[in-house]
Amino acid sequence: MNIDEICNGIYYVGVNDRTTHRFEGMWPLPMGVSYNSYLVKGAEKVALIDTVHVSQSARFLAHIAEITGGAGIDYLVVNHMEPDHSGSIHAIKAMYPGLKIVGNSKTAAMLKDYYGLQGDDVMTVADGDTIDLGGKSLKFYMTPMVHWPETMMTYVEEDGVLFSGDAFGCFGALNGGVVDTQFDTTAYYPEMYRYYSNIVAKYGMFVQKAIARFDGVCINYVCSTHGPVWHDEIARVVDAYSRMARFEGEPGVVVAYASMYGNTEELAERVAMELSRNGVRNVKVYNLSTTHVSFVLADIMRYNGLIIGGPTYNNGLFPEVERLLSALKGREFKNRYVGCFGSGSWAPVSSKCIKGCLEGLKVEMVGDAFDMKCSMHDTDAERCHALATAMAAKVNG
Ligand SMILES: Cc1cc2nc3c(=O)[nH]c(=O)nc-3n(C[C@H](O)[C@H](O)[C@H](O)COP(=O)(O)O)c2cc1C
Ligand SMILES: [Fe+2]
Ligand SMILES: [Fe+2]
Fold first, then answer.
1. Mean of the pLDDT values across residues 86-95?
2. Contact present, 282 and 333 (Cβ < 8 Å)
3. Count of H helices and E strands in the chain?
4. Do the beta carbons of residue 182 and residue 233 sit within 8 Å?
5. What is the DSSP pairing of strand 33-35 with strand 250-257?
6. Closest CA to 293 of 333, 252, 325
């Protein structure tokens, strides 16, 4: 059970979910996920920041009771209405009927539409407003589209604690400890790339805006809605998020391919080998039929190069390749060097289709796209070499 005082009257009361297979019905959770909620105790009033997924309401209420010892709660601040955080609002309201739900005008509309809550139950705040809890004041920052339109962040001025919502969050349940000072966080960083690239990526501009708002603001703890509370590693986490928000990749190439009978796979292996021969140290090869696109997106977010390959399938793209391309489009991936190759037995069109799908994305096409007929011949090996050489020159700068 991960309930702890983070600092000076601010407590973690969130829960772990090690049962759900797919977050948002789509994204695998090999390390689980935490839904974080926090209790802020002032001298006069007590505020709860966000709730948890409805499946975890009972545990959540027990955590709160353990911290409050049965005392009341005055406010529930709703930084984000997505149901992984608002799902226990009814349970909280039933337990603490007098509590005021705090949100902005967009939150208020969703509170009504999701939960039928309005009128006296809801207190609307605007950017810069504060609520005094007695020795602790909550200040609200509107940060729309990180990751929904109503998203806001809440800052405890006296302690420099920022409740950041989904921003700075990551997949991965918490293993006993809550704050990064209490455990080795290494495993959470890949989960951060995956979380960001899967869920938030499209809203990079808004993430940058939100980060800019806290320039010069003293922040001792970043309490997001998923994953560890950041204290020692704030600079590293904010840097990782800033880079991702700008689609800034580090040198490396993801080779993402699909193959039915292994011939296209041979091209992928050859391209990877040639990349390595050309000095690319980070080469990540993924078979799109065996690795969920979630993990592939994470590495595409991390590295500056991408090569996509797949067979022609009924005069079009292989479905798994199409899935990746549509995920890239949906997230408006940019600032990447991209190459592609394909194959077919009688009328190959896959490299042309891949290129077509990438149109409109702000990426730089590298090397010559090509299609192999049936199996790898010397000319195909030479094309792999040429593509990899061109890509290596780009990604290594
Ligand atoms: C269901 C199916 C549909 C295919 N459709 C086409 C096609 O429309 N045009 C074409 O040139 N080849 C087509 N092919 C052939 C494959 O694209 C070709 O064999 C390719 O090299 C397969 O690569 P692989 O060995 O990596 O699976 C099709 C193959 C299958 C099994
Ligand atoms: Fe969200
Ligand atoms: Fe979330």
1. 98
2. no
3. 12, 23
4. no
5. unpaired
6. 325
List, in sequence order, every residue forming a beta bridge with 27; answer none if it has no partner: 23
* Radius of gyration for the chain, computed over Cα atoms and rounded to the nearest angstrom: 24
pLDDT of residue 86: 98
Task: Tell the residue nearest (CA) to atom 17 of ligand 1.
Answer: 344
Q: For residues 255-263, give the mean pLDDT.
A: 98
Ligand 1 neighbour 346 (Cβ under 6 A)? yes
Strands 33-35 and 4-7: unpaired
Nearest Cα to Cα of residue 230 among 163, 279, 286: 163
With a cut of 80, say whether residue 1 has pLDDT above it. Answer: no
The answer to whether residues 53 and 36 touch, using CB atoms and an 8 Å cutoff, is no
Rounded CA-CA distance 37/11 in Å is 9
What is the Cα–Cα distance from 394 to 1, expressed in whole angstroms? 48
Q: Is the pLDDT of residue 189 over 90?
A: yes
16 lines ligand 1 (CB under 6 A): no
Q: What domains are there in the chain, each with its CATH number?
A: 4-245 (3.60.15.10), 250-395 (3.40.50.360)
Q: Which residues surround ligand 3, an ion (CB under 5 A)?
A: 84, 166, 225
Say yes or no: CB of residue 261 within 6 Å of ligand 1: yes
* pTM, two decimal places: 0.96
Can you tell me the distance from the alpha carbon of 339 to that of 354, in angstroms, rounded to the nearest whole number? 9
Q: What's the rounded Cα separation, in Å, for the pair 355 and 365?
A: 8
Ligand 1 atom 4, closest CA = 313
For residue 42, the number of C-alpha atoms closer than 13 Å in the C-beta half-sphere is 19
| Per-residue confidence (pLDDT) for residue 357, from 0 to 100 | 97
Indicate the SS3 state at residue 8.
coil
* Bridge-based pairing state of the strands 283-287 and 250-257: parallel
Mutate which of 321, 345, 375 for ligand 1? The one with the most ligand atoms within 8 Å of its CB, which is 345
For ligand 1, whether the C-beta of 345 sits within 6 Å is yes
Kindly state the helix (H) or strand (E) to which residue 223 belongs, with its residue range: strand 221-224
Is 286:295 a contact under the CB 8 Å cutoff? Answer: yes
> Strand, helix or coil at 234?
helix
Query: Using the 8-state DSSP alphabet, how is residue 297 labeled?
Result: H
Three-state DSSP state, 383: helix
Contact 176/2 with Cβ under 8 angstroms? yes
SS3 311: strand
- Give me the pLDDT at residue 84, please: 98
